[in-house]
Amino acid sequence: MWTSMDILSNPLAILIITSISIVLACYYAYNHQQHKKKHHPIAATMLHHILNFHRLHDYMTELATKYKSYRVLSPFRYEVYTSDPANVEYMLKTKFENFGKDKKEVGA
Fold first, then answer.
1. How far apart are CA 108 and CA 104, in angstroms?
2. Which of 108, 106, 104, 107 is nearest to 96 (CA)?
3. Which residues form a coiled coil (predicted)?
4. Do 57 and 22 reside in the same domain of the chain?
5. 93 with 56, same domain?
């Protein structure tokens, strides 16, 4: 049976323990920082869109009635939808320059 002194005298064990500690510290720091940011609630996933495809417009209208702004998750990204007039004004009038435009969208 190994004792704690045997493990601490093994360079490979020290490397493994250190690596695991660093990964856990990075994971904690990343999650802690993510929780500080304010995110809109998750209202649906792409699976919900597929299941409600036959009535997608009505489904999205129901979500917009329930949440003024919300996220829809998909495997590699998420989309933010809003029906809040203050958010729409912010994006289209107040801070229009903050929202990037694709060259093909602006006709360049």
1. 6
2. 106
3. none
4. no
5. yes
> Are residue 32 and residue 66 in the same domain, yes or no?
no
In a domain, 108, yes or no: no
Let me know whether 24 and 58 are in one domain.
no
9-66 tens-digit pLDDT? 777 877 888 888 787 776 666 666 555 567 788 888 888 888 999 999 999 999 999 9
| Owning domain of residue 79 | 42-98
Instruction: List Cα–Cα distances, 108 to 8, 30, 34, 101, in angstroms.
Output: 63, 38, 36, 11
Global pTM reads 0.55
Residue 54 DSSP class: G
Q: Is residue 104 part of a domain?
A: no
